[in-house]
Design a protein that fits this description.
The chain contains 8 helices and 10 strands. With 241 residues, it is an alpha/beta fold. The strands form 2 sheets. It has a 7-stranded mixed beta sheet with strand order 4-3-2-5-6-10-9. The longest helix is centred in the first third of the chain and has 14 residues. It is globular. The relative contact order is 0.18.
Amino acid sequence: MSRPKITRGDIKNLLRKLFHIKDKNWFNDSDYRFNINTDETRKYFDSVKSTPLSEESEKIEERAVIDLVKIKPGMKVLDLGCGEGRFAEMLENRGIKYVGVDFSKELIARARNMNIKGDVRFLVEPAQEFVSDERFDLIFLFGLIPYMNDEDIRKLSRNCRTMLKKGGRLVLRDVILEDKGFERKVFDDKNDFLRKIFFNKIPRYQLIRRSLDYELKLFKEFSLVFQKKIDGTKLSIKILK
């Protein structure tokens, strides 16, 4: 397996750490006006590893998923925003059918190059546009919705409802906004001076962090059955039905 290439984004993050440069790219979106530029987000994920998590956080997350989501042979799993197929690799040899979908051609190419054994398929498509006649036992949305606009999440929710089997589960993982009085907080490095050092050739990084109540409004086709923070991380995992 080839190593991920070092990108300008990696260099920018290294410089930020070396020179103790504080982030000034967060702001509370109190008027709900911010929209993610999907093309810029795709460029970002085409140029970097699929997850911004540390290796330690990845391992903690994977253990939590295995403990909370009971994977049984014969299950069908849909992983929307699958990136480079980390969870396909984790679930290899468990006798499941796995479909991974991501809007980044580069990440899907890496996933396919892993040559994961079993009934595994990877597709290039925006998560909110993917619709299948198949019905799945589990649908994973891991680190996906922070990079989506509200209207796209609503479309995603409606599609997921139709693709889940009766008794199936939707599993979300992201960081919940806990700032009191706010439902959305935005990160956008569009005007970051470190990007300007590279003449704005570093892909723009944006995300929307949402409160739990606001997030559940976007998934109104579902009800929350379980939610907890993953110990040792800032991550929250939620199971909806």
